[in-house]
Design a protein that fits this description.
5 helices; mainly alpha
Length: 106
């Protein structure tokens, strides 16, 4: 199952605006059959967080950044849920998610 199929199976589905942001963040992975959903979600979350950490927040952009923070949170949650779906490699996949996020902190 690829990231797109996994995401489509979530119930309840995320709200439309969040779903659109998730799809945008995952664009390079949505149909990639050789990328585990947990990896795709973790890489996409790290990309959003990396960009947010580089951006100087201005009062006018904070509201726009909120959807990115919500999307990053959802992607991390989905990464761990997808890892749990792969019982045989749960520990390895969970460690990989944590490692991808840990490098964001100095």
């Amino acid at each position: 199952m690829n990231a797109s199929e996994w995401l489509a199976s979530r119930r309840p589905a995320p709200p439309a605006k969040l779903a659109h942001r998730l799809e945008s963040a995952l664009s390079e992975f949505l149909s990639a059959p050789d990328v585990a959903p947990s990896d795709a979600f973790a890489v996409a979350a790290a990309g959003l967080l990396r960009r947010l950490m580089r951006t100087e927040s201005k009062p006018s952009s904070r509201r726009e950044e909120a959807i990115d923070l919500l999307a990053a949170d959802a992607l991390v949650t989905y990464a761990l849920e997808a890892a749990a779906d792969e019982c045989g490699s749960f520990a390895e996949r969970t460690d990989a998610v944590i490692a991808r996020l840990a490098v964001l902190v100095d």
